[in-house]
User: Fold this.
Amino acid sequence: MTNTSLARHFVLDPSRVFLNHGSFGACPKVVLDDQAAWRERLEKEPVAFMVGQWERSLDEARGHLAQFLNCQSDDLAFVPNATHGVNTVLRSLAFPAGCELLTTSHEYNASRNALDFAAGCWDARVVVAPIPFPIQNPQVVLDALLEKLTPQTKLVLVDHVTSPTGLVLPIERIVGEMQSRGVDVLVDGAHAPGMLPLDLTRLNAAYYTGNCHKWLCAPKGAAFLHVRADRQAHIRPLAISHGANSPRTNRSRFRLEFDFTGTTDPSPWLSIPAALRFLGELLPGGWDELRQSNRKLALEGRAQLCRTLGVQPPAPEEMIGSLASVPIPPAGRRPGNVYDDALQDTLVEKYNIQVPIFYWPALDLRLVRISAQVYNSAQQYRALAAALTRELAARN
Assistant:
């Protein structure tokens, strides 16, 4: 049922219908081999690598990523994941008491928790712009944010692609409108790299963080934080280390502090070039064809689910990338599930289908969210639709 010609490049269980690339990604064999080679190189002579080769290797990997993102390499810092990137910015900034930090009702839970924590530290207030779902068009998002904007707003935290609902938000317009009013934007782009074409120089957001382990298919632990040059003086890594008092003058303080925060495994970051190269060469049209193919498959999968379940598509096609969520009938939770929803357990145990079913409290909705990556096929979404129909009918 998989796209076998491309699924062979991954180590995913071929008997499993894996429709949840969006949660943790999946790493191709060739990239895992590259990561293993970096680890072996490190372990052969740890001191020589950490002291003499680490910095040069990071520079090279960061340069490849910067080219892909169209930004300056020195404006990038490697972090373990996008949540780490969000926390790095929020824990670095100082907010005046009584100010407002603006986000949307679709914000990723971990990032929202970080925002709440930062607000509590500075006696600030989190303001939430409610975004409906189903949604009519991208303008609804911008209008909702602008309606909640006040002279007290100091920062906007917004997803580029929402996690619970799989919506591509109009991030260029959001950043432009906010920054024209003197308000910085922190973009949680966890899903965007590899799913959407990115030009961070043109976007010009104050802060942008994204994962490389999702749609770039790099190893787990590969992510980045992009900080605009005029904002770097105030942004410090979560772990303050040797770079804080380094006497070196050949690298920026931002570079010195972020590139080494203590001993860690750098292989996920160093394998990013291998992931960029492999996925970029997987289809004849390169990255553009890969993104378009995944998006087409996600739209086909969503259409199949909507037809079978008898619901309308909850968002316009222009707001869909390689993720798509569809509302399904609610059901009471049962304790003791492996997953949050008993239906997800059933889909795994009975049909060998891995897809997230979750309750979204912001709008009291129960959702099924599909992902589309090169190893998936239209047949898999048909199997999911049939299984959902059968199980939902059995529960009514």
In short: DSSP finds 15 helices and twelve strands in the chain. Residues 360 and 366 are 6 Å apart (CA to CA). Residues 46-69 form the longest helix (24 residues).
